[in-house]
């Protein structure tokens, strides 16, 4: 057979180097484009997965809690929350993780690696998500909004946790008592109730707490610090969450609405016990007689009937840590002290929407409003 330039010495077809380079370029080309945002993909199946972001399609369902996902890998990672499986272990400290990605990020604690740099201030971070969260400090941007109540968040992770207020999702289960939580941090603090662990101790009075945030709030009892101030009436609060609840007294906002009767509440903690009126759910059960209760505080009071303990006996001064600075009277609860202080200040926060009459306590306003309904 006669040799020609189109064949190599082995008798096969000769490939021009320039032609081969062109083929590689064609292989690298991203030919599948999203019509919505313009993002390009090399493979059609990658484009189809991406399109679910715009359509909101989540076809992979968790049979345990009902949460849905766009991809099977995200569902499989989620399932480990329910099973408790953590197959990826750190060789340095032995801590286990549900995903290899979380393990990889954790290892940076030991190595000190922080590859993600803020261009504004030069601060570095171990994950891209932490960098994105940080950059909002410079812009004060809150790009993640709740479609149900309109509340905005700097971080997508904070929005996802917030959404569980509306959906009622509580994926984190306590293996001891069966109680569920919307956040892992809340579950960790709760577990310490069963173990008795209180690692966060007040340097002033020695009282222990299950988490650092509760300790911080407690220390403000001793210091008198109330850094969160209401712009309407000037009242100060020890925590931002207490301030937020307080402002709804002035605005009348009740964002947490019962789907059954339409009644609104200022906080989710008030809505959840209310919903049990309709479902007759009584998750708090007395171990002695089996009687069930809708809220834990009612169970605690009931349990004292079996021990012959008198729950409403006058407490000693040392058991009444809340002091009125005006008259020196002591109280066992901060809420009782707040109500008492209004005697001296004359403050009346609760107003009737019909006649405008104001009251010091919400409990007095409610009976007043009833005839106007």
Assigned CATH superfamily of the domain at 37-113: Classic Zinc Finger
Number of strands: 24
Report the helical percentage. Answer: 40-55%
Q: In the CATH hierarchy, what is the architecture of the domain at 37-113 at level 2?
A: 2-Layer Sandwich
Main sheet summary: 2 strands, antiparallel
Spans where pLDDT lies below 50 across 5 or more residues: 1-15, 17-27
Strand order of the main beta sheet, please? 1-2
Shape: globular
Q: Give the amount of beta strand, in percent.
A: 5-15%
Q: What is the radius of gyration computed over CA atoms, rounded to a whole number of angstroms?
A: 30 Å
Query: CA-to-CA gap between the ends?
Result: 105 Å
Alpha-beta classification = alpha+beta
Q: What is the number of helical segments per DSSP (H or I, 4+ residues)?
A: 13
**Average pLDDT value?**
79
CATH topology of the domain at 37-113: Double Stranded RNA Binding Domain
Broad CATH class of the domain at 37-113:
Alpha Beta
Which properties best describe this structure?
single chain, two-stranded antiparallel ribbon, disordered N terminus, globular, DNA-binding, Double Stranded RNA Binding Domain, RNA polymerase II cis-regulatory region sequence-specific DNA binding, alpha+beta, 41% helix, repeat, 373 residues
């Amino acid at each position: 057979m006669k040799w020609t330039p189109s064949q190599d010495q082995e008798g096969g077809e000769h490939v021009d180097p320039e032609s081969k380079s062109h083929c590689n370029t064609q292989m690298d080309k991203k030919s599948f484009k999203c019509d919505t945002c313009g993002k390009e993909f090399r493979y059609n199946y990658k484009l189809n997965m991406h399109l679910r972001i715009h359509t909101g399609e989540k076809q992979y369902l968790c049979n345990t809690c009902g949460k849905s996902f766009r991809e099977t890998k995200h569902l499989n990672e989620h399932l480990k929350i329910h099973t408790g499986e953590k197959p990826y272990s750190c060789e340095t400290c032995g801590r286990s993780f549900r995903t290899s990605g979380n393990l990889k990020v954790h290892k940076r604690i030991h190595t000190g690696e922080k590859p993600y740099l803020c261009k504004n201030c030069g601060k570095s971070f171990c994950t891209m998500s932490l960098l994105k969260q940080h950059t909002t400090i410079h812009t004060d941007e809150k790009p993640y909004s709740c479609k149900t109540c309109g509340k905005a968040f700097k971080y997508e992770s904070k929005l996802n946790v917030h959404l569980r207020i509306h959906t009622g999702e509580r994926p984190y289960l306590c293996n001891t008592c069966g109680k569920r939580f919307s956040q892992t941090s809340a579950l960790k603090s709760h577990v310490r109730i069963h173990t008795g662990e209180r690692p966060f101790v007040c340097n002033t009075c020695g009282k222990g707490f299950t988490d650092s945030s509760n300790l911080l709030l407690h220390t403000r009892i001793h210091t008198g610090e109330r850094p969160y101030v209401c712009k309407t009436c000037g009242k100060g609060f020890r925590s931002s969450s207490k301030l937020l609840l307080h402002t709804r007294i002035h605005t009348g906002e009740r964002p947490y609405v019962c789907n059954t009767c339409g009644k609104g509440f200022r906080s989710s903690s008030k809505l959840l016990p209310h919903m049990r009126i309709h479902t007759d759910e009584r998750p708090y059960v007395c171990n002695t007689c089996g009687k069930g209760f809708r809220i834990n505080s009612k169970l605690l009071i009931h349990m004292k009937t079996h021990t012959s303990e008198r729950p409403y006996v006058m407490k000693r001064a040392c058991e009444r840590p809340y002091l009125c600075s005006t008259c020196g009277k002591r109280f066992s609860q901060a809420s009782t002290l707040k109500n008492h202080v209004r005697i001296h200040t004359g403050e009346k926060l609760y107003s009737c929407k019909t006649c405008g009459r104001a009251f010091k306590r919400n409990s007095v306003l409610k009976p007043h409003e009833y005839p106007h309904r």
